[in-house]
Write a structure and sequence with these properties.
Blueprint: H1 3-10, H2 14-26, H3 37-40, E1 42-43, E2 55-59, E3 62-66, E4 75-81, H4 86-102, E5 107-113, H5 118-129, E6 136-138, H6 143-147, E7 155-159, E8 165-170, H7 178-189
Parallel strand pairs: 4-5, 5-6
Antiparallel strand pairs: 1-8, 2-3, 2-6, 4-7, 7-8
Helix pairs in contact: 2-7
Length: 191
């Protein structure tokens, strides 16, 4: 067991560590990092609560500012993506299915588009792919992506119900797999 994993297990994040171990099984072989779990995933130790950085949400034709703090009390699967990113495009249906499966259990997918074209660009994308369960969010100017130092897309952060990021996965994953759902339920139960 590595030193960083030992520290994590001693910390309050035992459920998060167990959940991230489940996620290793959930990732398809091409998306899984070549390194071991504790080298391939970033687990946040002593992370700060999410910022109040606003991003745009569109529902029913109305656009309004929201922040991650608006999701307090829920497990948030914060996915940074773009329509021009092939792994992101491949991953979106699994995020849509995840939202359908667990959205009523205190687990919310925030698929945050980094597209410069905003809603005008992502609306046709959602329609063409039949994404019916995901809300529409845009990170105008990439402010939240910069805050979290997103280096590649897709990048997905897991945020606990207390509003503190638990960890992140760089690259695509099958988020609706039984293992990923188990991970998210464990995070929810750990609140």
């Amino acid at each position: 067991m590595t030193r960083s994993l030992r520290k994590l297990l001693r910390a309050r994040a035992l459920p998060a560590a167990l959940a991230l171990a489940c996620l290793a099984v959930a990732l398809p072989p091409l998306a899984r990092p070549a390194a071991a779990l504790d080298e391939g995933y970033v687990i946040f130790e002593g992370a700060e609560p999410v910022p109040a950085t606003p991003f745009k949400h569109k529902a029913g034709g109305l656009v309004r500012d929201v922040s991650l703090q608006d999701f307090e009390g829920q497990v948030v699967v914060l996915n940074f993506w773009a329509t021009w990113c092939a792994p992101c495009v491949a991953e979106m249906p699994s995020l849509d299915r995840l939202q359908a499966a667990l959205g009523d259990q205190g687990i919310t997918v925030v698929a945050l588009s980094e597209d410069r074209g905003g809603f005008a660009q992502i609306e046709p994308f959602y329609e063409a792919r039949g994404l019916e369960n995901l809300e529409r969010y845009v990170d105008e100017g990439g402010r939240l992506a910069r805050h979290f130092e997103v280096r590649v897309m897709p990048t997905t952060l897991l945020i606990g119900p207390d509003g503190v990021p638990v960890g992140q996965v760089e690259g695509a994953a099958e988020w609706d797999s039984p293992e990923a759902q188990k991970l998210l339920k464990a995070l929810r139960a750990g609140s």
